Prior knowledge:
alpha+beta
Amino acid sequence: YGREQKKGRSRILNNKIYKPFNLIEALRMRADFDIVPYAGGTDLMVSSETPSFLFIGDLQELQDIYYDDKGLHIGPCINYTELLHHYLCPELLQETIRKLAAPAIRNQGTIGGNICNASPAGDTLPVLLLYDTKLVLQSTQGQRTVLLSDFIAGRKQIDLRSDELLVDIILQKKGFNSTYYHKIGSRKAMTISKTAVAAAATIDNDKVVEIGIAFASMYKTPLRFPEIEQGMTGLSLEDLALNRSVFVEQYSKLLHPISDVRSTAEYRKNATLNLVDDFLQNISK
């Protein structure tokens, strides 16, 4: 970083890197300067842009994991490896992290970065949608809470104001006892998904109490369709399996992926519908 310069209690490194000592200073810097917050920086490393940065990766206030009556709180600056091995991390999220990048990147990258990067292929985003995740955004003026589904408006487009930081990720409590995650890429590791499906259900007495299916790499944002899920809720597992073609067809009418360098739209859609069918057919196994 070069020689440190003192500015109050905070540090400015090479006039490009701002490094606060705590969250309060980070919020002040965010308000006072045109700077991009980052923690792991795994995506910024390959970016051609060269703005000034606010390093928040070592702020302890942004690295807690705990349960309370609101749900599971995950600090946005927790790296994937720490989250993977934490006893509070949901099994479905652990499965997703195991298939994310490689150990070196998981040691550095953070879940908050995956959210704020707002890539249509973001690996954790479909899982977070299933938990009706809320995000707490803070500035020197106070806090506000938004749903993840409202926070991401498009590729690299998020509802984060220029003076705000993401300070908390809250997963709602769920009773999921059947989960599913499948990611299709060009290879088994270190790959961006062509498509990914995360699904989960709460089954009681062979009936569907709650169900969710979410998608990555199928649109400019991660997708979930509550109106289709409502039609599955309350069904017996037998009826769900027998009528799965009806639900697959409903998803087929709503999924309109694009072709790009990683895949064709036709392949994306067919593969995704096959994954939905697989989940519905084997939900109790």
